[in-house]
Every structure is written in C-alpha cells, then in structure tokens.
Amino acid sequence: MSRASLITGVFTVLVAVVAVSPVSAQESGSIVPMPGPAASAKRTILLGFDGVDFDLAQRYIDEGILPNLKRLSDEGTFQPLETSNPAQSPVSWGVFNTGSNPGKTGVAGFVARQLHEPDGTRLAGPTPQPNLIHDAEVDLAPFLDFPMALENPVGFTALGAGVFFLVALLFFKLLLRMHGGVALVLALLAGGAGGYLAHQHTVGFPASGKVKYFTNPRQGTNFWSHLDQAGVRMRGIHVPVSYPPDREGPNTQLLSGLGVPDIGGSPGTWYIYTDDPWILDEKQTGTAGRIVKVFADTDPIEARLVGPRNWVATADYQDRIAALERKLAVEGLSPTAVGALEDELATLESEYRRFSNTHGGKVTVPFTMSPDRAAGAVTIDVGGHVQTIEVGGWSDFVQADFVLSKFFVTHAQVRFHVMRCDDEELRVFVAPINFDPRNPPRIPAISSPPEFAAELAGAIGHGYETIGWPSMTNPIKDQPDSKFSPQSFLSSLENTFKLRENLLVASLDDSADWDCYLQVFGTTDRTAHMLYREMDPDHPGYDAEYASTVVNVWGREYPISRAIPEIYKEMDRVVGDILARIDSGALGDDVMLVIVSDHGFQSFRWQVNLNNLLQELGFLVFKDDMDLAAARKARGMFAYADWDSSAAYSLGLGKVYLNVMGRDYPIDPWINEIATGGDGFVELAGMAGTDLSGATLAAYDATGNLTGSWTAEGALAPVDRGLGLLAVSAPGVSDQGGLALVDAAGEVLEFLSWAGEIKALDGPAAGASAVTQTTSGLAGDGTTLARASDGTTLARAGDGWRGSHFAFSRHGASTRGRANGGQQLGRDTPGPVSPERYDEVVEEIRAALLAAVDPATGEAFVTSASRRDEIFSGPWWHEGTAMRWTGREQREIVHDGFADLFLGYEPMYRVSWSNSGGGLDSASIVPNDNHWSGDHVSMDPRHVQGVLFSNLRLQQDARSGLEDIAPTVLKRYGIAIDEAEMDGRALPFEGL
C-alpha cells in the first residue's frame, strides 16, 4: 500500500467517525445538477397562481391591464379550468399533482371528520381534524448516518476509540516512523479523543429511538414520479401538498409548499410583543396569534421567541418517570427504599410540571428590543444578529437556533415588523418562524434532495420563506386584536412574491439543469381572501372609507379596493418575463408554457351554518334541556347534539355526514333478555347484521368463579330501526350471579351482576369487573335479584339504541325473537341511520337542502349536493384500511372516508366559521363581517372556475380540468398514461 493511499484511507475513516450530527445541507453558490440524462429537447414550464379567477382575469384582460396574458389569450389558449369538487386548495392541488380524483388522493378538504385514530382506536365521537399534514412518530435509525450510535451507544463509543487508536498508531508508527513508545502514547490519546467524539454522537437521542415526523395524507402518484422514472428532470418550487418530499427520485428536485408547517408544527403561529398598558398578560387571538405583554422598565426590553415543543426532553421525562414507577412496583422493597423512590419520583414529576408549564414545554430563544421612540425605530438583537427597523418596516431574515438536545437543533429564521414605536406604545410583530433554508431540517426534510433547499438559498444569495402559508392572512383576520394594517398585510405579500420571483429567475437562469419546471405562487389567493369586500360595495362588511385607504406596494400607490387587480398585474409581469425569454430562445426551441390556477373566487357575503339548518329541518336534534341559545354556548357538538335522536350533522367546509349506525354511531351488542331454567336462553341485541359467531356468554357466581359458558353462532336478525336480536341457547343459565358477553376476539362487551360487586377470577372475562344492575318491581332488595321461576324471563325495558338505554325491570313471559314488553328498539325521532335506510335518508336530506331558501330573499342558495359515491372513485372515499407511507415505511391505517354529501352554494354564500368545527350560529344564514371576505370553499365548483393559459393553442371546444394537466405533461414526454390510475386525459394542444 502506498503512503498516499494510506493517508487517504485514514482521512476517510476519521471524517466518518468524528461526524457528530446528521449531514446538513449548507448554503452554496449554485444548484447541484441532477444526475439525469442530457436535457430534453422539449422544455415545459408550469406556473400555478393560486386562486386566480377566470371571470376576473377576463375582466382585467378586457380592461387592458394584463397585456402578456392577453397575448397568450390571442395567440395561444385562455379558457376556464374546471376545479375539483370540493373547490379547496389541498383537494385541487392534489388532483393537479396526480391527475386523479380525490377518492384516489385521499384528500377531500382542509378539514376531515375523524372517527378513529390511525391504529383503529375509536374516538369519543366525530372530531374535526386538519388535513394538510398529520403528526406521526417514526424510527430514527433509518435517518442516521451511523445507526449504531442509537442502537448500541456503548459499542459505538468503543468502536470510535478503537478506530482512532488503530489509525493513529498506523499513522505515527508507519508513516512518520516514530518511536514505538511515543507512537503508542499518541495513539492512546487519539483513541481517547475518538471515544469522546463517538460518545458525543450518542448523546441527545430520544430513549425511545423514535423521532417526531409528519405524514402527508395525500395519496396517489405525482406526475413527476413518472417523469423521473423516464429520465425527465423536474424541478418544483413551493409545490403544494407535497410535504414531506421523502420519496422523490434522482431526477427530481422539489421544494415543498402548502403544507410545510412553521418550526412549531403549526400552519403559522404569529406573535405581537407590546407594552400596551391595556394588555395585562399574554392573550391568544381567534386564529393563530398571541399578544405578549413586555415591560419597558428594562433597557433593552427582554423577550423570548417561542419555538418547537421539546419532544426530546418530554420523552426523557416520561421515560424516567416510567422507570421509577416500575421500580416502585417491585415487590419486597423495604419502607426506606420505597420512601426514597417516592421522593425521587415526586421531585421528578414536579420538575416535569414546571417544564411543561413554561411556554408549554417549548424551546425558546431570547432576544432584546431597544426602542428609539423619538426616531420611531427599534433595534432588535437575536443572539448577536442585530437589525434596526423603522416603523412600518420589516427586518431581513434573522437566524435563530432552537436547541432541543445536542443532536436535535432546529435552525430557524424569523422576520420582525415594527408596527408602532412612540411614547404611548411599542408594538413589534413577529411573523411565523420558518425553517432556515440555508441549514434545513433532515427529519423530515422540506426539499428533495434535502440539500436542495440550501442550494436554492445559495443561488439567490439569501434566505426565503419555507412555510407553506407565509402570507399574513390571520393577523389581518384578527385585526381587532392585532391592529394589523392593510399596508402591513400587502407589504408582507410583496416580500413573499419577490422572494418567489427570485427563485423563479434563478431557475430560469439555470434552465439547462431541468426539462420540466413547476412553481406555485400563493399571493393571488391570499389577496383575494382578505381584500375582496373592499371591491364589493354590496358586501355586509364593506366600508367605503376603509376601501379608499391608500397603500404603497409594488412601488406604486393605490387604494386597497384595487389590491386584487394590482396583484394580477404582478402575475402578468412575471409571465411577460418568461415570454421574453422564450422569444429570445434562451430557454430552447421547444418550450411549452402552461399557467393554471386551482380554483377561482367569489365574494363571501353570507355565512351558512349547516348544523343550524339541519336542526331546523329536523335532522339534527339538540339535547333535551337545550334551546338554540344554550346550544350555541356549548363547547362543540359533543355538548349539544343528541346523537341518539339525530340523523345527520356537519363538520368541515360544506360537508354533511349521516349519523350512520356502526360508523358514526357505534353500537356494541348487549344482553337483552335472560330466560332461566333447563330450556334457558340469553337473547342478545344490537345492530342488525352484526355477526356474533364465536362470541361467548360466561356465567359467574357471586365470588367471581365461572359456572358455565355458551357460544353464540350467527348474526343479529333485523327487528326494527336497524336493530336486531339473536337468541343463544343457554340451558341452566341463572339470573343470580353475573353474566358476561365476550366477543370472538376476547373483548368484554358487557358484564352484568345481580349479586353485588363481582370480579371474574377465571374464564373468558377474567379480570373484568361487573356492572351491578339496579332493578325495580322485583323480589329482593333491588340490587340482589331473587330467583325467577322457570318459564319467566329477566328482560330489559325502555327505548333507545344501545344497551345503556334500557334497564332490567320485570319478569314476564318470553319474548324470544322480538322486542321485550315495555321495550322499543330505537326511537320515534330521526335517530341514527341504519345501513338499510342509508339511500333513503341521504336522498331525503339532499332534497331538503336543495329546497332550502334564504329567509331574506326567498331564493335557494344550495345549487349542488353531491353524494360521495357519485363523484368519487378509488379506495379513500369510503371507510376502510389502507397502506400509507410514513417516513420510510408503509403502515396500515384505519381511515374514515369522506362526507356523505358535499354541498355547493350560490356565489356570495360560504360555510360559516362556526360550522367548520361543528359549532352553531344565531341562524342558519348570518352576515360575514370578517376581513376574510373572498372565498371558494363550499361554493359550487361551477361558480369558482380557475384559469388555463398556454402559449400553445388548444383545439376549440376542448374542456379542461385540473386532472388533465398531469396526463398532458406525460404525453408531451411520450410517457404512457395509466388510465386506471389517472382520471384526466391529455389535452389536445397543437404542437404538444
């Protein structure tokens, strides 16, 4: 072996061992080219402008303010682009990315209704769940360069010491030819250093070996995966619903967009720090904001940035507490040992409570503010990064590191905005804290490959926003608390748009490294959401004076009533730059430009609360003691809805769910009638059709000993209102002790006692405790039942849907095969819907909603009510189990399907704010007085169509929808389309 090769080997081993953290992408001066084939002769540019409306675009083209889009309209293509149903961004972009309908992507809205945890655990009832990303936990080892450091820390430390010792010994003895003793001493020192460095690499891992992760609920195959497999290089920037991008191919560079959270895992938590004398303590706003009181009695003023929850420390506390509890559970400990362990446990629990109560167990970073109130400026210092910001100004990105442990550090960037700095108040706004793209996270990554985010930052020479929703819509929505001005809002949009444009320009300058380019801009959508009413004098919240407020954005002044056409003008300017490059040949000879939006927009004047409407129509029933006023004060549907008497309810954005037996309304089988004696039987009741084959009835005496058991066979036969009965022959069954019903999987469904407290000592219900039955009209003391004579039965009476609705209250003749005397299975109110009545009830509800009218106008406002089984296909629209990727593994999860009905409203109507979470309003239709005044969600998709522009001409009369873009791109590159997977079709562009 040559000396040079030995030195190279030594260097390689040393670098591998001394690494003390996962490889982090660092800022670079250029983007590393993909390892794909030579550039394709065909170049495709896909630009997405979220929320651009066809009618508005046509109006502004006619007004002459969009010259570049007019050119595309004249020379190429401009037409409506059909959006998804429902018309919501996660749904729409999922359809765009895959070419598949929502039933195949698994996403049908921003908010989903959840009945189960992914592992199948039943929740207490229907629960709204945000549906952009889901929290998850995955094994850490597959993400590590040296998994041994986690799995065997002692061995890894020893290995590090041994490798350093051996390499050093070879180096000093063989290469430098030192004296053996000196070389040995130096090698031992090197071994100690290597062991220390290796040990440091093992410090800070969670004891569980698990790491916090996020799961993308969207399923299906992205069109760029097909491109990648064919060797076509794709670069995507701020691509919606692609987070985390953990399964992209070698020919794909992707930066995720909508769905990427802030560093705390939320869609975007913002803060305001103020010394306002009227603010007494920290206050949470209606959306995602916090107003924090600071005190001006220190110079500088001290405050803290709040970062991610320290899940590493939380897991460590929980592991240590569990370990102490296990020690305490060991039998035979001395009183002294028990006392010492109890004291240690109490101290640790107290420490854990203090940790949890301090900023919610979140990591914080200190910063200071030095206000110059005379000059109207604030100097802010974050860990030595100092910037002075004038009133109305925004800082550059300021770096901040949130340290969870030695191994886990969240590198972040934050922007400050000085809203006020005078003698009366200091008011500093802190935007949601982003991951720092110059040092991005690896677990999970925000880009693919993980270092791509840093390469982009290097290409433009500065950081950029990584959060999926960077626009400050929530602060202006919470304006009464935030006092966030339209100038502040629009200047934040301008900053975001310019950063997006910088990334676009860098990629266009670097066009030799990609064949297909995709980028999405969201500022068009955010502007329309927050400032639509300012151009709609008929909006209930319109204020002429406010609408005439002059702002200075894009280097020009205009009233905020012109905010939407002004952002369209910026879109047009960007398109003009691309057309100029195409005209010059800088992008090649065969360039296809396609511009799309995911949906359009309408003014949002009136809020529709479907729960109010369903209650008015008789399908949703309040609890007995509640009128509307009381129900509105209740905290959510669990507090006001009478599930035993309701047929339907609403959660999310314009969705109606039937209260289906066995799905939304769980019904466990119960013991309904007991006939004692030699010909005895036990009759079981529950949801008709439930198969009880293999279930066991186990009888116990008063001491908990098993006295007999009988096996059920067959299903519950229908009797009434979706409920059924099954009689199980049980000769000799007694009504003196206890009786348990245990299903075939061993779960105790019911354990009843007529002999006081019983705990089963053996048999199928071993370990379970019985519920003592109180009876009336019977011999005995009411809790201990006297024996009934042969031929009579102990039967449940009352009315309802579950065993808990009935009580054992009489002896009488057998009612085998039918409801007991004094018993009504189900109730006369609408009640839960049996599967047999599903079609009948869903059509009844659909007809009633389509016929509903606005009391103020007498006109219908629901224009479409679509059944899920009519508009979706694929595995996700109905309940079931499926495999879903989480991190680097697939897991089988339980999913709860989509809503039974998706409503579409007339323009000007949208689902109410309260309805989204299952709440109520004062009436089914109320005015919208919020700044969030333009929308598309829950509106009929026909009324909110997006746009399709292209420099290629589309054959006349060719309709187009979001699902058609993906197959069009694939056809352009000669890639076969799997019609079973994709629902769209390639659009007939000339020269495709």
Textual characterization of the structure:
The strands form 12 sheets. An 8-stranded mixed β-sheet has the order 2-48-25-1-22-7-8-21, with helices on both faces. Strands 29, 30, 33, 34, 38, 39 and 40 form a 7-stranded mixed β-sheet that branches. It has a 5-stranded mixed β-sheet with strand order 10-11-9-19-18, with no helix packed on it. Helix 10 runs antiparallel to helix 11. Helix content is 27%, strand content 27%. It is an alpha+beta fold and 992 residues long. The radius of gyration is 33 Å and the shape is globular. The longest helix is centred in the middle third of the chain and has 24 residues. The N terminus is likely disordered.
Write the layout of secondary structure elements.
Blueprint: H1 3-18, E1 42-49, H2 54-62, H3 67-75, E2 77-81, H4 89-98, H5 102-105, E3 111-116, E4 122-130, E5 134-139, H6 148-151, H7 153-175, H8 180-202, E6 210-215, H9 223-229, E7 234-239, E8 252-256, E9 270-274, E10 283-284, E11 289-293, E12 301-309, H10 311-328, H11 335-357, E13 362-372, E14 377-382, E15 385-390, E16 398-403, E17 409-414, E18 416-421, E19 426-430, E20 434-435, E21 447-448, H12 452-460, H13 473-477, H14 479-482, H15 486-509, E22 516-521, H16 523-531, H17 544-547, E23 550-553, E24 556-559, H18 563-584, E25 590-596, E26 602-608, H19 610-616, H20 628-633, H21 637-640, E27 648-649, E28 655-658, E29 670-675, E30 681-687, E31 696-700, E32 706-711, E33 717-720, E34 723-729, E35 738-742, E36 748-753, E37 771-772, E38 792-800, E39 806-813, E40 823-825, H22 838-851, E41 862-867, H23 868-871, E42 880-886, E43 889-895, E44 901-905, E45 908-911, H24 913-916, E46 925-927, E47 934-935, E48 946-950, H25 965-972
Parallel strand pairs: 1-22, 1-25, 7-8, 7-22, 9-11, 26-45, 36-37, 38-40
Antiparallel strand pairs: 2-48, 3-4, 5-6, 8-21, 9-19, 10-11, 12-13, 13-14, 14-15, 16-17, 17-20, 18-19, 23-24, 25-48, 26-46, 26-47, 27-28, 28-44, 29-30, 29-38, 30-34, 31-32, 31-35, 33-34, 35-36, 38-39, 41-44, 42-43
